[in-house]
Amino acid sequence: MLDIILILVAVIVLIILALASRQPDTFQVSRSISMAAPPATVFTQINDLQNWQAWSPWAKLDPNAKNSYSGPQAGAGANMSWAGNNKVGEGSMTIVESRPHDLIRFKLDFLKPFKASNTAEFTFTSAGENTVVVWSMSGKNNFIGKLMSLIMNCDKMVGGQFEQGLSAIKSIVEEAG
């Protein structure tokens, strides 16, 4: 009887490992929103990392997180590091490219709850009186990431956070405008 149980457990583990190995090597999450504000106004809100406390969904998950800033206040080279509860973890982000009213690209380095390096970006496109803002993140799926994707949907989880953040930015820039 014990032999049968051990064989069944081994088969289940092998099936899980096989399913995980078939998951994509990369991932991308992207959300967009139209805002009744010019690209310059929206760009400024995102390009200055200290503004993120007003709209970042992760700032709301841990208002007591410890944030530190280095480099310039805004634009390429601006850096924010954070250490918070288990919902926000620990890591840093650095603006690696900043093209006014067009694009902001970040390097994201997560240290906790697990290590990962990803790329995130915001793009801004004029649409008449509005600006369409796209927030996206992409990265590589290591084996642990592939295994976790069997039980967690990264697109829904992170995408939901992006939607909250974009809605908060929209409120800020539309009230200011």
TrEMBL record:
Pfam families: Polyketide_cyc2
Protein name: Polyketide cyclase
InterPro entries named among the record's database cross-references: Polyketide_cyclase/dehydratase, START-like_dom_sf
CDD domains: SRPBCC_1
